[in-house]
Amino acid sequence: MCKEYNDILIKHRHNIRKAYSWIKENLPELLIPEYSYLWNIYYHDESKLSYNEYQAFNDFTFYERTEDVINNYRRAQLEHRHKNPHHWEYWVLQTSDTPPTPLDMDYPYIIEMICDWWSFSWAADNLFLIFYWYDKHKDNIMMSDKTRTTVEDILDKIYNKLIKEMLV
After folding, report:
1. Do 105 and 154 meet the contact criterion of CB atoms below 8 Å apart?
2. Is the pTM of this model over 0.70?
C-alpha cells in the first residue's frame, strides 16, 4: 500500500464528512430525517480499497502513465462507478438496443454525490468551486430531469446559504 495514496483517500473522505456536516448543520431540511447517511458518508469510496481499484488509481496517480496504467485506470473507474450509487454513471441504463437512459437517482445518493463533488472545494478551501465545476461539466453529466432538478435545487440552496453567511 502506498502511504501517499492512502493520505489522498483519507483527506477526500474527511472532506466529504465536512461537506455533509455543513449540510446537516446549515441546511438540515435537505436531509431525510429517517434516513441514516452515516454509512454512505463514513464508508464513502470503500471500494477504492479493493485490489483492482486501489492499484489502478495509485499507479495512475503516482507512476508513468503507460498504456497499461491508463487502461487499468479506466477499468477501475468503470468498476468503481458501477459499484457505487453516488456516481451518476451508476444510474445510466445501457442496453444494446436503446440509447443510454438516465434513471432517477435515489435521494440519499444525490446528497452523497454532492458531498463528493464538494469535497474538492473543501480541499481547496474555496467552498464556491463546486458551482464553477458543475457549470463547466453539467452538459456532460447524464441525469434524468428529476435528478438534475433535485441536484440543481440543492446546489442553489447551498450557494444561497454560503452567500448569506458571507453577508453576515
Report:
1. no
2. yes
Which of 10-19, 27-36, 133-142, 143-152 is predicted least confidently?
27-36
Contacts of 19 (CB under 8 A, 6+ apart): 114, 115, 118, 119, 121, 122
d(CA 127, CA 147): 22
pLDDT tens digits, one per residue of 50-89: 988 999 999 999 999 999 999 999 999 999 999 999 999 9
Contact 18, 152 (CB under 8 A): no
92 by DSSP, 3-state: which? Answer: strand
From 131, 110, 109, select the one nearest 120 (Cα to Cα). Answer: 131
Rounded CA gap, 46 and 9, in Å?
9
DSSP-derived 3-state class of residue 93: strand
Alpha helices of the chain — where are they, by DSSP H?
3-26, 38-42, 51-62, 67-83, 107-123, 129-137, 145-167
Set of cell numbers at residue 95: 442496453
